[in-house]
Amino acid sequence: MSTDTKRRPSFWMRLVGLPLLALSFFLAAGSALAFADWLPSDLERYRSYTAAVPCPADTAPRRADDCLRQVPYTVERAGRESAGKSQTYRVALKGGPFGNGEVDLGSPGELSGWLRPGDRVTATVWRGEVIDVAAHDRRRTSENEPRDEPQMPAALGTAGALLALVLLGYGGVLLTGLGYGRITWKRHVWPLVGGLFAGPLIVGLLTVWLHVPWQAVPPVIVLGTAGALRLFLRRDEPAAPRSHRASGTPDPVR
């Protein structure tokens, strides 16, 4: 047995295992929440929105209306605003029965100068939220519009579950000492953690773009993670011994 496998974590390294275990439980709870609440909520919201019909003209507007209502507003201010490294076009609306306040209309594009304070606009409102804004022969959907993108919560929920397993396993290694030295943070855990941050995000974006059913997202991420784990473990396996034979030595007679 190699001396590497006889190593045991120090007292302080064992203490590091405790927050890793706590973080793994937190990630597991987040993963469960993504599949139990976030994903079903997004699916229901999109289906309800696509099935919504215009509200009857003779009904009073209510915030909880499940129909599409055209509501007039007055523009309080409008323009580009920074959102991290990107920019977005925001409009502040007032004068409506509800839905007053800022509305994010996404990338500014050619919207510069489109709306000015005091302009009257007509907005489509659904469940008390402004879905789109129309004025000056142009209509622009807002970030409130439900979208058919369940792949992202599926990808992030799967990533949370796998990260929880990785941290739970390594936290157990630090606390018990089993496998310590053979399984290391630098060679095994950190590459998996980094891959589980970037990989599922890329998979989620690609599947949204390609309109892949969300049910296919978790298996793809799980298989990719299993393949990466197998690769990391195989590279640490000792190479098979090779027989050395002098050149020119004839093969034995059979």
Note down, in words, how this protein is organized.
Helix 2 (151-176) runs antiparallel to helix 3, helix 2 packs parallel to helix 4 and helix 3 packs antiparallel against helix 4. The protein is built from four helices and six strands; from the N terminus they run H-E-E-E-E-E-E-H-H-H. A hairpin with a 2-residue loop joins strand 1 and strand 2 (86-94). The chain is elongated, with a radius of gyration of 28 Å. It is α+β, with helices and mostly antiparallel strands and 254 residues long. Residues 1-5 have low confidence and may be disordered. The protein has a six-stranded antiparallel sheet with strand order 3-2-1-4-5-6, with no helix packed on it. It has helices at 11-51, 151-176, 185-210, 217-234; strands spanning 69-83, 86-94, 101-104, 120-126, 129-135, 138-141. The chain has two domains: 3-40 and 149-234, no CATH class; 54-141, OB fold (Dihydrolipoamide Acetyltransferase, E2P) (Beta Barrel), CATH 2.40.50. Helices cover 44% and strands 18% of the residues.
Topology:
Layout: H1 11-51, E1 69-83, E2 86-94, E3 101-104, E4 120-126, E5 129-135, E6 138-141, H2 151-176, H3 185-210, H4 217-234
Antiparallel strand pairs: 1-2, 1-4, 2-3, 4-5, 5-6
